Amino acid sequence: MKQKMLVRSLIAAGVIAAGVGGLAKYDVSIFTHAVAAPSAAPVATASAQPAVAALPDFTGIVARNGPAVVNISVTNNVEKVSAAPAMPNLDPNNPFYQFFRQFRMPLPQGQIPTHAEGSGFIVSPNGIILTNAHVVDNASSVTVKLTDRREYKAKVIGMDKPSDVAVLKINASNLPTVKLDRAHNVKVGQWVIAIGSPFGFENSVTAGIVSAKSRTLPDDTYVPFIQTDVAVNPGNSGGPLFNTEGQVIGINSQIYSRSGGYQGLSFAIPIDVALNVEQQLLQHGSVTRGRLGVAIQDVNQGLADSFGLKQPTGALIASVDKHGAAAKAGLKAGDVILSYNGTNIASSSRLPLLVADTAPGTTVKLDVLRNGKSRQIEVTVGSAKATKVASAEVAGRDHGRLGVVVRRLNPDEQKQAGVGGVVVEDVSGPAANAGIQPGDIILSLDGKPVTSPAQLKQLTTNAGKHVALLVQRDDARIFVPLDLG
Fold it and tell me: Are 381 and 275 in contact (CB under 8 A)?
């Protein structure tokens, strides 16, 4: 039996077999029973009509917000492994050995471009777009397509893998935008709709209800997901989840499935979480989170009985990082955290969310049960490792005519290498085909010394179709010819 799995919906299928099934329509008769009135006082009775709840009409929401939902096409360069046809296991003295050897030619090295699709939505008229981090992770090129068929190359301003949120920017203005609502207004059972590009079918609309709130999923410690039964499939990733007011309440991110396709369980990142990440990436270029420095586990009934708790609740500390904030405050393994700054901890999964949302350096109060006795402990929250910006120079970056992304050598690298030049961080196109690798140092182009990325770009712009790079790799130097076409 296949195990259940969480699937980050990303790659759009190339071919889809579509089946259409019929729905049977049933007529339902509602019978009402007349109630006899007392004979002394006859009263006219009227049959009570059952209340009929009208189904929501999403046409207005789609018309208003559809133009602000975009299709995202991503290109990734996957390294092609060099190989050679297998040699028969022959003795070198065998007369056929040389015959087979002359046809054993190595296959060329290089990179194979792969393509994938996702969704996103515009939150600012000047081209700021939110999507999932896993949609644009390791992308060499990101293209955003609007509903009016305009296409733009996008820069990845930043991404935060723990929350699976990424911020893109396209060079455009006066763009349509969506309206946003705070996720704490979400109610279980309310109608919601998703707009996205499942399997590449742009601006597809699906609807359902909110199934649950604040779901914690494996490996997603910091996100209290909104669970829905909205149909979400590969390509929907990064698209918006709307309420019936036409406001975005979340970003569709994952599905829970045995087959890899939609099976009625979809999960969206609350818009509050996404906006917090967006703000930090735009302002600081990184995302910081609070950290206690403890490993925790749930309190089951057996543990509750042993600790003297009336019911299973709280977060049991299994271990304490001796260099973390918790250790400095005196927390110990075996302590049960019952509340965090006034918020009750019903289950252990609640604590990481609260800590992550606390600014490092903030002092908070914990209600702790230790050896059957309650006590209050103050902790100055530490800082989790920041998620650095994944800007246009890291993902979705421009490799230029040469097909390289370069940077200056820092002083230590210059001292170690004993040269100037620029160091290669990523390669594609002509440079990859010529065998240039990350870590190579480009010293000159057509005999002209290279001292900065800007100078290399200028030299490349003015170059012809063929150039020669002087490259240093480790202690060896070699001229490498490039065909720029």
Answer: no
Check if 134 is active-site. Answer: yes
Q: Using one digit for the tens of pLDDT, what is the confidence trace for 33-56? A: 333 344 444 544 445 555 556 788
Selected catalytic residue, list 134, 204, 220, 426: 134
Q: Which residues pair with 482 in a beta bridge?
A: 467
- Indicate which residue of 137, 160, 164, 440 is catalytic: 164
Is 319 a residue of the active site?
Answer: no
Architecture category of domain 293-380 in CATH? Roll (2.30)
Residue predicted with more confidence, 485 or 172: 172
Q: Hey, where are the domains in the chain?
A: 1-10+56-84+95-286+387-394, 293-380, 404-483
pTM of the model: 0.64
Whether 237 is catalytic: yes
Instruction: Select which of 211, 237, 266, 428 is catalytic.
Output: 237
Mean pLDDT, range 135-142, rounded to an integer: 89
Exposure class string for 116-130: b at 16+ Cβ within 10 A, else e? bbbbbbbbeeebbbb
Per CATH, the number for 404-483 is: 2.30.42.10
CATH fold of 1-10+56-84+95-286+387-394: Thrombin, subunit H (2.40.10)
Helix (H) or strand (E) run with residue 432 in it = helix 429-434
